[in-house]
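re: ur question from yesterday

yeah so i grabbed the chain u mentioned. its 155 aa long if i counted rite. heres the sequnce exactly as i have it in my notes:
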Amino acid sequence: MKKLAVLLVLFLLLTLSLYAQVKKGDTAWVSSKTLALKTSTWFFAGTRGTLQMGDQVSVLQVNGNWAEVRSSGNASLSGWTAVTNLSTRRIVASGAAVTASEVSMAGKGFSQEVEDSYKTSGELNFDDVDKTETNSVSLDDLYKFVVEGHLVTGE
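ran it thru and got these C-alpha coordinates back, copy pasting raw so excuse formatting
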Protein backbone atom coordinates (compact mmCIF):
# COMPACT_ATOMS: atom_id res chain seq x y z
CA MET A 1 0.00 0.00 0.00
CA LYS A 2 2.90 2.37 0.76
CA LYS A 3 4.35 1.81 -2.71
CA LEU A 4 1.04 2.77 -4.27
CA ALA A 5 0.85 5.95 -2.19
CA VAL A 6 4.43 6.91 -3.09
CA LEU A 7 3.77 6.28 -6.78
CA LEU A 8 0.59 8.36 -6.62
CA VAL A 9 2.42 11.28 -4.98
CA LEU A 10 5.22 11.10 -7.56
CA PHE A 11 2.69 11.02 -10.38
CA LEU A 12 0.87 14.07 -8.98
CA LEU A 13 4.13 16.00 -8.59
CA LEU A 14 5.13 15.17 -12.14
CA THR A 15 1.72 16.20 -13.44
CA LEU A 16 1.81 19.49 -11.55
CA SER A 17 5.28 20.27 -12.87
CA LEU A 18 4.00 19.93 -16.42
CA TYR A 19 1.40 22.61 -15.80
CA ALA A 20 3.42 25.62 -14.75
CA GLN A 21 0.90 28.23 -13.67
CA VAL A 22 0.97 31.61 -15.32
CA LYS A 23 1.18 34.66 -13.10
CA LYS A 24 0.88 38.41 -13.50
CA GLY A 25 3.72 39.82 -15.57
CA ASP A 26 4.55 36.54 -17.29
CA THR A 27 5.00 36.08 -20.99
CA ALA A 28 2.94 33.15 -22.27
CA TRP A 29 1.97 31.51 -25.53
CA VAL A 30 -1.41 30.33 -26.82
CA SER A 31 -1.49 26.53 -26.56
CA SER A 32 -4.88 25.90 -28.19
CA LYS A 33 -5.62 25.94 -31.93
CA THR A 34 -7.61 29.16 -31.61
CA LEU A 35 -8.27 31.32 -28.59
CA ALA A 36 -11.23 33.67 -28.20
CA LEU A 37 -10.35 36.50 -25.81
CA LYS A 38 -13.40 37.17 -23.62
CA THR A 39 -14.72 40.39 -22.10
CA SER A 40 -14.92 38.76 -18.65
CA THR A 41 -14.21 35.52 -16.80
CA TRP A 42 -17.59 34.07 -17.74
CA PHE A 43 -17.45 31.24 -20.29
CA PHE A 44 -20.27 32.77 -22.34
CA ALA A 45 -18.91 36.34 -22.22
CA GLY A 46 -18.55 38.28 -25.46
CA THR A 47 -15.44 37.91 -27.57
CA ARG A 48 -12.98 40.77 -28.08
CA GLY A 49 -10.80 39.01 -30.62
CA THR A 50 -9.09 35.76 -31.52
CA LEU A 51 -5.52 34.54 -31.24
CA GLN A 52 -3.87 31.50 -32.82
CA MET A 53 -1.72 28.71 -31.40
CA GLY A 54 1.79 29.98 -30.69
CA ASP A 55 0.80 33.66 -30.43
CA GLN A 56 2.67 35.43 -27.63
CA VAL A 57 0.78 37.28 -24.88
CA SER A 58 1.57 39.22 -21.73
CA VAL A 59 -0.32 38.21 -18.60
CA LEU A 60 -1.95 41.31 -17.07
CA GLN A 61 -3.62 39.57 -14.12
CA VAL A 62 -4.82 36.19 -12.94
CA ASN A 63 -8.18 35.55 -11.31
CA GLY A 64 -8.55 31.91 -10.28
CA ASN A 65 -8.55 29.78 -13.43
CA TRP A 66 -8.70 32.83 -15.70
CA ALA A 67 -5.97 35.17 -16.96
CA GLU A 68 -6.33 38.58 -18.53
CA VAL A 69 -3.81 38.82 -21.36
CA ARG A 70 -2.66 41.31 -23.99
CA SER A 71 -1.50 40.20 -27.42
CA SER A 72 2.18 40.93 -28.08
CA GLY A 73 1.44 41.24 -31.80
CA ASN A 74 -1.50 43.64 -31.36
CA ALA A 75 -1.27 45.77 -28.19
CA SER A 76 -4.90 46.91 -28.59
CA LEU A 77 -6.15 43.31 -28.27
CA SER A 78 -6.66 42.10 -24.72
CA GLY A 79 -9.14 39.92 -22.88
CA TRP A 80 -9.73 36.97 -20.58
CA THR A 81 -9.01 33.30 -21.19
CA ALA A 82 -8.80 30.12 -19.16
CA VAL A 83 -5.21 29.59 -17.97
CA THR A 84 -5.33 26.10 -19.51
CA ASN A 85 -5.17 27.79 -22.93
CA LEU A 86 -1.74 29.23 -22.12
CA SER A 87 1.76 27.81 -21.88
CA THR A 88 4.73 29.36 -20.12
CA ARG A 89 6.90 27.61 -22.69
CA ARG A 90 7.18 28.91 -26.22
CA ILE A 91 5.26 26.73 -28.66
CA VAL A 92 6.99 26.03 -31.96
CA ALA A 93 5.31 23.68 -34.40
CA SER A 94 7.56 22.34 -37.14
CA GLY A 95 5.68 21.35 -40.25
CA ALA A 96 2.10 21.86 -41.36
CA ALA A 97 1.16 18.33 -40.31
CA VAL A 98 1.38 19.17 -36.59
CA THR A 99 -2.04 19.94 -35.06
CA ALA A 100 -2.92 21.85 -31.91
CA SER A 101 -4.20 18.69 -30.25
CA GLU A 102 -0.91 16.93 -31.03
CA VAL A 103 1.06 19.76 -29.41
CA SER A 104 -1.27 19.69 -26.41
CA MET A 105 -0.99 15.90 -26.07
CA ALA A 106 2.80 16.02 -26.44
CA GLY A 107 2.89 18.55 -23.60
CA LYS A 108 1.13 15.95 -21.48
CA GLY A 109 3.68 13.26 -22.36
CA PHE A 110 1.70 11.62 -25.19
CA SER A 111 4.38 11.62 -27.88
CA GLN A 112 4.47 9.99 -31.29
CA GLU A 113 6.45 7.13 -29.77
CA VAL A 114 3.74 6.54 -27.16
CA GLU A 115 1.02 6.64 -29.80
CA ASP A 116 2.97 4.22 -32.00
CA SER A 117 3.34 1.77 -29.11
CA TYR A 118 -0.41 1.90 -28.47
CA LYS A 119 -1.12 1.32 -32.16
CA THR A 120 1.21 -1.70 -32.36
CA SER A 121 -0.62 -3.37 -29.49
CA GLY A 122 -3.62 -3.60 -31.82
CA GLU A 123 -6.02 -2.80 -29.01
CA LEU A 124 -6.87 0.81 -29.84
CA ASN A 125 -8.67 2.47 -32.72
CA PHE A 126 -8.26 6.24 -33.05
CA ASP A 127 -10.86 6.67 -35.85
CA ASP A 128 -13.66 7.60 -33.43
CA VAL A 129 -11.40 10.06 -31.61
CA ASP A 130 -10.46 11.74 -34.90
CA LYS A 131 -14.14 11.89 -35.90
CA THR A 132 -15.15 13.36 -32.52
CA GLU A 133 -12.52 16.10 -32.80
CA THR A 134 -14.22 17.38 -35.96
CA ASN A 135 -17.53 18.06 -34.14
CA SER A 136 -18.32 21.65 -33.26
CA VAL A 137 -21.12 23.36 -31.33
CA SER A 138 -21.65 27.12 -31.40
CA LEU A 139 -21.55 29.04 -28.11
CA ASP A 140 -25.13 30.20 -28.73
CA ASP A 141 -26.34 26.60 -29.07
CA LEU A 142 -24.34 25.54 -26.03
CA TYR A 143 -25.73 28.39 -23.93
CA LYS A 144 -29.28 27.55 -25.04
CA PHE A 145 -28.69 23.92 -24.01
CA VAL A 146 -27.39 25.00 -20.58
CA VAL A 147 -30.31 27.38 -19.94
CA GLU A 148 -33.04 25.04 -21.20
CA GLY A 149 -31.54 22.16 -19.20
CA HIS A 150 -31.43 24.30 -16.04
CA LEU A 151 -27.72 23.56 -15.73
CA VAL A 152 -25.26 25.69 -13.76
CA THR A 153 -23.44 28.13 -16.05
CA GLY A 154 -20.26 28.28 -13.95
CA GLU A 155 -18.22 31.39 -13.23
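noticed a couple things. The longest strand covers residues 56-63. also Confidence is low (pLDDT under 50) at residues 12-19.
anyway ttyl
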